[in-house]
Design brief:
Length: about 210
């Protein structure tokens, strides 16, 4: 059983003939579940819903300095659960120290490594019923450390389908040097096949 407690906020529902426009600004949402620590979030959304589609123009979840913002569309028979297509665009920012503290609350018996730095991830997802979604992504990290290991900055961009992972580039940089992969492909037709090009200026993980 999941319990949600709201403190303050605004909610409006507007009847637009055969659809409803919903606006919600909730500055304090507290989620509670037995035997787990409570989770407090900021939640904002704006969407238009009718019998055949859900159009989300804005969705935002925020906890301290970490956040998710997204927009997208679902089409199909929503009342019967017969979704046909979907599209999602999202941008996330994670503060790794905040993520570590949050995860540690839920994993009391597991000692997690000390984290530093941040991660940004942008996604574009297109989905059709009975088909694997097509996903475009871009990821960036800043000043990432795992305990005493310095990873530094990672920058990558690519796509994911049912049969292939393709990277436009993958770069890793820290005070010890820099390495960069060019066009990289991991594909499966009959067997998995991997190709890439490497440009290295010397790199090591420092401890």
């Amino acid at each position: 059983k999941l319990l949600a407690r709201l403190k303050g906020g605004d909610l409006s529902i507007e009847n637009r003939f055969d659809a409803f426009l919903v606006d919600a600004e909730l500055p304090s949402v507290r989620l509670e579940k037995a035997k787990l620590p409570p989770l407090e979030l900021v939640f904002d959304t704006r969407f238009l819903i009718d019998d055949s589609s859900l159009q989300v123009s804005a969705l935002k979840l925020k906890k301290q300095n970490s956040f998710l913002v997204a927009s997208g569309t679902l089409k199909g028979d929503l009342m019967a659960g017969g979704l046909r297509t979907g599209k999602l665009n999202s941008r996330t920012h994670f503060s790794l120290p905040e993520l570590q503290l949050l995860a540690q609350d839920y994993l009391e018996k597991t000692q997690l490594p000390k984290l530093a730095g941040s991660v940004d991830l942008d996604l574009e997802l297109k989905w059709e019923v009975n088909r694997f979604p097509n996903i475009l992504f871009r990821g960036r990290t800043r000043d990432v450390k795992l305990d005493r290991f310095v990873i530094g900055a990672i920058d990558t961009e690519g796509s994911l389908t049912q049969d292939a992972v393709q990277l436009k580039h993958l770069g890793i940089e820290n005070s010890a040097g820099r390495v960069r992969l060019g066009e990289t492909s991991l594909s499966r037709i009959d067997d998995w096949k991997f190709t890439t090009t490497v440009n290295s200026e010397g790199l090591e993980l420092k401890q």
